[in-house]
Every structure is written in C-alpha cells, then in structure tokens.
Amino acid sequence: MSKQLHQPWHILGAGAIGCLWAHNMQQWQLPVTLLARTQEEHRQMQVKGIQVTAGKVTHISRPASIFPSMSGGTITNLLICTKTYATLGAIKAWRKRLHPQVNIVLLQNGMGTAQSLQSLLPKANIYCATTTDGAWRKGLWQVVRAGTGSTQIGAFSAHLSPQNPPPPIAQLISLSVGEIDTLALHWHQDIITPMWHKLAVNSVINALTAVYQVKNGDLIYHQQGRLRLEQLCIETEDVMSRCHITPIPQGLLQKALRVLQQTADNQSSMLQDCLAERPTEIDAINGFIIQQGAIMHLPCAAHKQICQDLRQQYPNA
Ligand code: KPL
Q1: Which of 33, 144, 193, 300 gives 64 a disulfide partner, CB atoms 3.0 to 4.6 angstroms apart?
Q2: Does pLDDT of 250 surpass 60?
C-alpha cells in the first residue's frame, strides 16, 4: 500500500492504550496526531516522544500532536481511548474540528459512552473496540506493554452496516495482520457480544481488587473476595441473560478465574486508579450492570454493595 493512500488518524486520550496505538500507527507509517489537552502537554510530547517498552526493548516514537487552540485540519478518523467519565468533556474541546461524518473508534473499558457520544454527534460513524492487550503507564507517555492480546472492532451506530469495516478501519486491520509484536486487530460483526463479555469480567474483578487492595491473582485465594466474586458472577450473568446477550461459553466464573490467573501479577486498572486517587470507571462498569438490571427489575445487590464499599473507601472513586 503506498504511503499517499494511508489514512490519517487522530488519537484522543494519550494513556497507556492510546500511546500503544500511536506507536503502532507510526510503525505502520500512518499519519497519526495526538490530541493534547494543553500547549504544555503538546510541547512536552514533542520533546520527549512516546516510550513503549516491550520486554527488554524500549522504542521511542514521535507522533505529531496538536492542542485545542492550535490550527490544524479536519479530523476524519478518530480513536478515543480516554477513560469513560472523561470522554464527553474531552471531545467537546475538538468538536468544531470533527468532520460531521467522522469515523470514531471508541476503545475503553465499560459501556454506555457510545450511546452518549452518538447523541452528541448524531452523524458520526461510531465503532466500538474491545481489547485483551495489556499495557500500563509507567510515567508521562511511558508505556509498558504487559501482555499481547487481540482487539475486536465492530460497528456501533445504527446507521452502519455491521458486516464490513469502512476503508480506514479495513486498512488498520490489514496493516496489523502478520506483523510480530504489533497490535492484532480483527473485525467483529457483532461487537456487542465481546464488549459485554469484557464488561462482565471487569464487573466481577475490578472493584473487588480495589476494595481488598490485592493483585489480580491474589483475589482467587481471598476468602471473602472469592465469595463476593461468585455472587457478582451470578448477578452479572442474570442481567446478561435478561438482556439476551450470548453467554460466555465456559461461564463467567471460570472465565474470570482464568483472567485472574493470566494477569496474576497485575493490579487491575481500577485498583491503579484508586491508589492514584483518580476517579474510576465504576459507573460505566458496575453502574452499567445495575442500570441494565433495574430495567429488568433485577436488584443486583452485590453490585450495589461493591459500589458503595468502593466509594466509602476511596472518596474520589
Ligand atoms: O481489564 C482488566 C482491568 O484491569 O481493567 C482486567 C481484566 C481486570 C485485568 O487487569
């Protein structure tokens, strides 16, 4: 594919996953621009670049960046990797630059933001993505790739065909194929299913690890934590079944235990947020389950209790 045909991308949310994507897009020779919040953030990004460490190797990438009052072209393809609670606020600073039919790929934990984004930008083509890639932020624009997974992307907007990706996303997928140590991207014709499965896992793990302040692997052997994990699994599966979501083949408990084993040494994203006194994604994870449950008249008592415990322990959560 010639360089001229490469589609430009902008990235909103330069956290661990946003930086990982920026680095990969640069390696694929796509024009990529990070949307910085301030002039100072932009300046620092230009000086330092992005550091991505995988194993013993550290790569430095230098994507372009702009800040809201800086001149720049129209945004036609946008990857959003902000935290759920920060998404709408962050997009408002860039709204005037967005092409009315901008292609947006929303890649974040939790659910609910895509609906709000579509109400704000009715003509936007919204796609959702869910990933099993593991990355954590070591410092400002310093990312450690903790595990290689895969990313499913699919259509969210009702006006889009779920069958095939549009050309800019098809290009990303084809560039990711066959490369070693790069992102593995796949088109999914029913993205709601993998999104719900990821949400389900997050809903039974993240808040518990934060409340008990344990690494993922230690939750398996935490007496009280394990009992609550099992209860949360029952409630989440009830909600999923009432919402007609395809069940997780091996069952949620087995799936969650597997994830806990595979990421035994990791701190969940919610524990990291709580320890850093940042807001968490609890509303888009457990809050979303409670909200869907309420529509189906399911009380979701264990989910309500874990939300309450988290908020009591961490006032910023
Ligand atoms: O996705 C995760 C997270 O931390 O948000 C899990 C699956 C819990 C792995 O840490």
Answers
A1: 33
A2: yes
Domain spans, the chain: 3-189, 193-313
286 C-beta closer than 6 A to ligand 1: no
- Whether pLDDT at 2 is above 50: no
CB of 274 sitting under 6 A from ligand 1: no
The pTM score is 0.94
Sign of the four-CA dihedral 92, 86, 88, 27:
positive
Residue 146 burial (CB count, 10 A): 16
| Ligand 1 neighbour 205 (Cβ under 6 A) | yes
**Superfamily grouping for domain 3-189:** NAD(P)-binding Rossmann-like Domain (3.40.50.720)
CA of 306 from ligand 1 middle (Å) equals 16
Give start and end residues of each alpha helix (H) in 106-219.
113-120, 167-176, 192-212, 216-219
Rounded to an integer, the average pLDDT of 66-88 is 95
The CATH code of the domain at 193-313 is 1.10.1040.10
> Which of 108, 201, 267, 268 is the pocket-test mutation for ligand 1 (most atoms within 8 Å of CB)?
268
**Concatenated DSSP letters of 132-161:** --EEEEEETTEEEEEE---EEEEE-STTS-
Decide whether 3-189 matches 193-313 in CATH topology. no
d(CA 229, CA 286): 13
- 1 pLDDT tier (thresholds 50, 70, 90): very low
* Average pLDDT of the segment spanning 232-251: 98
Q: Given the CA of residue 266, which atom of ligand 1 is nearest to it? A: 10
Q: What percentage of the chain reaches a pLDDT higher than 70?
A: 99
Q: Is the pLDDT of residue 180 over 80?
A: no
Chain mean pLDDT for the chain: 95
- What type of residue is 87? T
User: Does any ligand 1 atom lie closer than 6 A to the CB of residue 216?
Assistant: yes
